[in-house]
Amino acid sequence: MRRNVGWLDRVARIVLGVLLLGLYGALDAPWRYLSLIGLVPLGTGLLGHCPLYSLLGISTAKGGSP
């Protein structure tokens, strides 16, 4: 698993993930579970690897393509 997410992209994903997860307590029951989608950007930001980027051949990491 090569890193294909650059540092700026990682920071943006982590912030977005935390913000979405923060909505969990603020929303009512049916919408609350949609905020769990924040786990995806948070996970990809922490790991530095995005499976969708791999499929599309995209890399924002310094050093080239995956």
Give a structural overview.
With about 70 residues, the protein is mainly alpha-helical. The chain has one domain. It has four helices and no strands. It has helices spanning about 5-20, 30, 40-45, 50-55. The model has no long low-confidence stretch (mean pLDDT about 90).
Integer count of domains: 1
Mean pLDDT rating: 92
Number of strands: 0
Could you state the order of secondary-structure elements as H and E? HHHH
Low-confidence stretches: none
Task: Give a short account of the largest sheet.
Answer: none
Helix content: 40-55%
Cα-to-Cα separation, first versus last residue? 9 Å
Strand-residue proportion: under 5%
The Cα radius of gyration reads: 14 Å
Number of helices: 4
Task: Outline the secondary-structure elements.
Elements: H1 7-22, H2 29-32, H3 39-47, H4 51-56
Helix pairs in contact: 1-3
